[in-house]
Amino acid sequence: MAGHVAFLRAINVGGHTVTMDRLRGLFAGLGLDEVDTFIASGNVIFTSPGKGLPALERRIEAKLEASLGYEVATFIRTAAEVVAIAAYKPFPAAQIRDARAFCVGFVARPLDASARRSLQGLANTIDRFHVHDSEVYWLCANQQSESKFSNAVFEKATGVKVTFRGAATVAKLAAKLEARA
Q: Are 142 and 63 contained in the same domain?
């Protein structure tokens, strides 16, 4: 069985609170195995015999909405993809070190040329972006609270759903996945 990670958007924000025990139970209720969570921001590790990830994303979204009462966008990556995402270096090391925030955005589908242009149109002295495969890397020179960039701004500009995680979180998750292998 293949290892996967579901990155969930808005699982514990906006007044919603979901315990990790409940979240694990909802995933197990879908027939997924070895379900574990990684920090309380909506990162769920699991194994699944199926290969149809888009269909599985839709099943998880439907289950979460039915159980929680609100939409939870879901972005699945294989364990190997998460490890590769954590290892990818979209910006020079010195720029990453000097930035106040470095995040990875998991998108629902790869950005087409128009969406990429729209995203690059959001770049400024604070925010820089790099697109690679189905991820968007965001380098923020200042505190994220000083940036005008957000999930909503990204989605309005590109027409594609996204959820962001700090690159340090993705690296820790990748290390956990490698240890499980």
A: no
- Each residue's pLDDT tens digit, 55-96: 999 999 999 999 999 999 999 999 999 999 999 999 999 999
Mark whether 112 and 148 lie in a shared domain.
yes
Where helices occur in 20-166 by DSSP H, the ranges are: 20-28, 53-68, 79-87, 93-98, 113-120, 151-158
Dihedral sign for Cα 158, 139, 57, 87, please. Answer: positive
Q: Are 127 and 149 in contact (CB under 8 A)?
A: yes
- Pull the structure tokens for residue 123: 């770049």
Q: Both tokens of residue 84?
A: 């590769």
Please, what is the end-to-end C-alpha distance for the chain in angstroms?
A: 11
Provide the residue range defining the domain that includes 72.
Answer: 2-82
pLDDT digits 0-9 by tens, 105-114: 999 999 999 9
SS3 21: helix
Q: Is the pTM of this model over 0.90?
A: yes
Nearest residue to 104 (alpha-carbon basis) of 133, 67, 124: 133
The number of distinct structural domains making up the chain is 2
Report the alpha-carbon distance of residue 60 to residue 8 in Å, rounded: 10
Burial of 74 (C-beta count, 10 Å sphere; 0-12/13-18/19+): buried
